[in-house]
Amino acid sequence: MLAARLSEPGSISNLHVVELPVPAPPEGWVRLKVMAFGLNRSEYHSVHGMAEGMTFPRILGIEASGVIDLDPEGILAPGTQAVTMMGGMGRVFDGGYAQYVIVPRTQIITFRSSLPWEVIGSVPETLQTAYGSLTTGLDLQPGQSLLVRGGTSALGLATAALAADMGCRVYATSRREAGLEPLRSRGTIPLLDDGEVAPQLREAEPSGVHAVLELVGVPTLRDSLAATAVHGTVCFSGMLSDSWTISDFYPMDWIPNGVRLTTYSGQAQGLPAEVLQRTLDRIESGDLDLLPVHSYPLADIAQAHEDMASGRHMGKLVGLPWD
């Protein structure tokens, strides 16, 4: 099989497409024929040595979509459509940047869809994090207000779409003027983010918003907290800025009275199969526009990573290992 393997961290030049034996699943694992895999900021961190617990060489990829190729115990039939994500993929064991991947059966989610594989491949990990952030992280309710900090990222776009689908009033930020109109066209209220959006947001929402999804990270977190209403919640689910920790954090100075700060980082088990199926069905029917998709053959994985790092495209980047 062909796979994109990182020989060592430090540079995208260390990521090479190589030919390897097709892996054999041990007991309790299955083999997935990968039809598409999403690219994630997590893999950018891995390439640049910011991921802990990795050994090398390593096939990257924290998610994959495809069909069951082999289940030694016969529980999942060959040809069953399935997605998988997280659980150590691409870090502890080889991940989805390949034509085949083996994973524990417990992190397989099955579905049925006639959508193109590049569309299916854009959904799993993004949906898992968006759904988990809105439910577990924020407990967002229909009709409430939400600020998505980092609104033009794949996760930001997906979360905004799901929240708007719930009937919520959604504000979303972009660091670039060019990102404002695409956000507006997708039904959100765009805000230009210069690092401080709380003052302009409170012109529209004097009491603050019910919920904030923080995807930029530490540099904007304090301002996101300032944009939140009393008894509202900020959920820290992303680090687009690559800034992970807070120096000299003084909670009583950073966190306004009555505002809650939480986090979300889930696993495959955090995405119910019925939520995945319903989302794919609504995308297929045209009732839900989750993400713009930009696809690359496996041979162009280095270019895909460069585009992800530069933010060249708005939406989800997807690899197609059989192109």
TrEMBL record:
Pfam families: ADH_N, ADH_zinc_N_2. Keywords: NADP, Oxidoreductase. Residues 10-319 form the Enoyl reductase (ER) domain. Signal peptide: none annotated. The lineage of its organism: Bacteria, Bacillati, Actinomycetota, Actinomycetes, Actinomycetales. The keyword Oxidoreductase applies. It comes from the Bacteria. This is NADPH:quinone reductase. It comes from Actinomyces naeslundii.
